[in-house]
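Ops channel
N.P.: pipeline sanity check, posting one input/output pair.
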């Protein structure tokens, strides 16, 4: 079908208030809003001021009342334990109400904070919805985060209660959460009143008398007693949750998400951007601890009346590179949203895609990638093997939903490899030089969004308006700073090349590491890669490449490295000064799949570095250090 994108985007530009007023009709409101946008409220304005609503009501109760009571709402699929649990909308409501009753009996009420520190279990989503039901503000902290990181978040959010579990499961290991939680509470100045602990059979924990509450027992008692807790009306501008940006040091940055604008934006994206209909099965293979988990495991699909999949496992190793295809086949998934890292891992283990034909993927129609830059080779591999559109898109924890995408629901535009698509309604994206002037199309610069930010984006940071202004607004007045570098082409497609601190300066030439990574990943033997800039006396900085080879590659690594260097010289030119590639077994990543380029750069430059709180496996940094020393780098 012909795409309606330009018509819809231009319609938003002509009448932004009318656009969001129309989108807001898809949400049930307890009392109508006074204004769609109040430019005088908050730091840059607030959406749907004066309106009252409830996110849990819209995600659960209205579907139970409106004919979806017996439809599956949530599928918990654990590839690690080999178990699947399914909840209809009616069953999900029953579980949420019982847990809400437990919270209420512990004195949790509207405006109180609750930290959720849990693995990928159904109870994590239920806990989020239970908080939303009574207007408590949840803050999900990625399960297994180190105690210090959890403690900083406890001190910033000051929760009344913490909901956690005895353990999390990783391929080949069990991570005890209780010792980490106890140590965090010991470290923190703020002391929560109690902890609600879900005991998992894989590793049970000791509960402290008069402090720790057994989750299953408490919920079962409320369920048996026929507990009923109605949804509490909250203002559209009241906070639904706080999510802390990953890898922060010192005072963490608490991104605030409101209730009204968040619901309106997410509901609109499900059909228009992701092309999914109510009743269909949507799967975001992320973690509830990250923004993708909030927006597209829990809230987006449930607001839209979809069935959502909450998956505990990895793309490879649980048990093999076919696990994603099993989940899609078994549950009838129509759209998958995951990180490019996941697909690079699958491609690295199964370069020929031999697992794919073993599964029935007949219902599967779109793959969405975001979280890291999606290199064209990975996209082409996925297109060729899956024979469905592969849609790269770009957004941030701060925005809560895509800033740019190729909108499946409005009709796909031509795919441009290397671009995460075109701006979505609400996002007037510009590219500026460091002095704040717009640069010509096709020129690399700072990617910014003209204020006001649309519905669903952060209104501010938790208890830190001044810090919000300083971090996002002051550098380019009138604009929100994304801290990404990129360019816009003549047809309005954005190309996000790197974080602004990943632009390297080689002898006065500003070069994007992302563009070099694109070339490295084009080599047929390369599964994954990263490029960093390292200090050089003559040129200021020079690029250094790291490559991980596909499974089964037996060629001489020196020959492959020489070929990769030649490829960069051929495609980018001698200006890149690209001379060194190091072959390694694996790249250091955060648990959400982001490559830790900054830490690698510090190791190579012999700078002081701290172990990143979000790292997936610390041992990888020792491997990197040894590989660099073997080449005389970082000595």
């Amino acid at each position: 079908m012909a795409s309606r994108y330009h018509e819809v985007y231009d319609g938003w530009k002509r009448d932004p208030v009318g656009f969001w007023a129309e989108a807001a009709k898809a949400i049930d409101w307890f009392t109508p809003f006074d204004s769609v946008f109040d430019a005088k409220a908050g730091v840059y304005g607030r959406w749907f001021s004066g309106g009252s609503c409830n996110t849990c009501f819209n995600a659960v109760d209205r579907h139970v009342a409106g004919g979806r009571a017996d439809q599956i709402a949530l599928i918990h699929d654990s590839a690690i334990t080999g178990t699947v649990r399914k909840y209809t909308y009616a069953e999900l409501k029953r579980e949420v109400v019982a847990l809400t009753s437990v919270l209420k009996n512990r004195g949790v009420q509207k405006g109180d904070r609750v930290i959720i520190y849990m693995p990928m279990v159904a109870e994590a989503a239920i806990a989020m919805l239970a908080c939303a039901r009574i207007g408590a503000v949840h803050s999900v902290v990625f399960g297994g985060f180190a105690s210090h990181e959890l403690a900083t978040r406890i001190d910033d959010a000051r929760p009344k209660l913490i909901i956690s579990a005895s353990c999390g499961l990783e391929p080949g290991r069990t991570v005890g959460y209780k010792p980490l939680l106890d140590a965090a509470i010991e470290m923190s100045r703020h002391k929560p009143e109690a902890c609600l602990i879900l005991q998992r059979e894989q590793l049970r924990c000791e509960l402290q008398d008069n402090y720790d509450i057994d989750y299953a027992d408490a919920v079962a008692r409320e369920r048996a007693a026929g507990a009923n807790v109605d949804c509490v009306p909250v203002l559209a501008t009241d906070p639904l949750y706080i999510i802390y940006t990953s890898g922060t040091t010192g005072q963490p940055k608490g991104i605030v998400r409101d209730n009204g604008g968040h619901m309106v934006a997410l509901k609109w994206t499900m059909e228009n951007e992701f092309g999914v209909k109510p009743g269909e099965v949507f799967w975001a293979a992320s973690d509830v601890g990250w923004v993708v988990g909030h927006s597209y495991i829990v809230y987006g699909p449930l607001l839209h009346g979809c069935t959502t999949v909450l998956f505990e496992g990895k793309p490879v190793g649980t048990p093999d590179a076919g696990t994603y295809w099993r989940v899609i086949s078994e549950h009838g998934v129509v759209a998958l949203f995951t990180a490019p890292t996941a697909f690079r891992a699958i491609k690295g283990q199964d370069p020929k895609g031999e697992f794919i034909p073993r599964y029935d993927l007949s219902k599967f129609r779109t793959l969405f990638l975001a979280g890291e830059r999606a290199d064209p080779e990975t996209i082409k591999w996925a297109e060729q093997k899956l024979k469905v559109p592969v849609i790269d898109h770009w957004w941030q924890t701060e925005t809560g939903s895509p800033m740019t995408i190729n909108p499946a629901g409005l009709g796909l535009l031509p795919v441009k490899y290397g671009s995460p698509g075109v701006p979505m309604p609400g996002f007037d994206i510009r590219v500026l030089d460091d002095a704040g002037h717009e640069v010509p199309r096709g020129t690399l610069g700072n990617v910014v969004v003209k204020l006001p930010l649309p519905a669903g984006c952060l209104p501010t940071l938790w208890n830190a308006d001044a810090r919000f202004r300083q971090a996002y607004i002051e550098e380019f007045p009138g604009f929100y700073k994304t801290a990404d570098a990129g360019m816009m082409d003549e047809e309005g497609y954005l190309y996000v090349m790197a974080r602004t601190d990943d632009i390297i300066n080689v002898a006065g030439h500003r070069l994007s590491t992302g563009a070099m990574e694109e070339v490295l990943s084009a080599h047929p033997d390369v599964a994954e890669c990263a490029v960093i800039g390292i200090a050089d006396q003559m040129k200021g900085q020079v690029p250094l490449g790291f490559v991980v080879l596909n499974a089964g590659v037996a060629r001489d690594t020196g020959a492959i490295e020489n070929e990769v260097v030649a490829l960069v010289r051929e495609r980018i030119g001698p200006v890149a000064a690209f001379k060194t590639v190091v072959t390694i077994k694996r790249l250091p990543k955060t648990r959400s799949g982001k490559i830790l380029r900054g830490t690698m750069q510090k190791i190579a430059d012999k700078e002081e570095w701290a172990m990143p709180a979000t790292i997936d496996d610390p041992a990888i940094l020792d491997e990197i250090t040894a590989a660099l020393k073997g080449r005389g780098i970082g000595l």
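N.P.: looks fine end to end. The chain has 18 helices and 31 strands.
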